[in-house]
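Lab manual, section 2.4: Encoding a predicted structure.

Procedure: take the sequence of the chain (71 residues), apply the prediction step described in section 2.3, and record the output as structure tokens. A sample record is shown.
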Amino acid sequence: MTEYDTLAAVYDWLVHPADLLTPQGSAEAFDGLVDLPPGARVLDCACGTGHLAVGLALRGVEVVATERARR
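Recorded output:
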């Protein structure tokens, strides 16, 4: 296990408010700021653990998410 793996396990808890810790909550945080209709295409660079990418995908958005992990 690398340092990245250790941090990844608690990353969301450390840096996000509780309401953003679900995919749905992460996507809802952008309601009213960005209009992404179903079928829109999004590139989520540095997606972390992917909560936002999953939340958008659940709304029908086509998402490509990337994260760099050291191994």
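Check your result against the sample. The mean pLDDT is 83.
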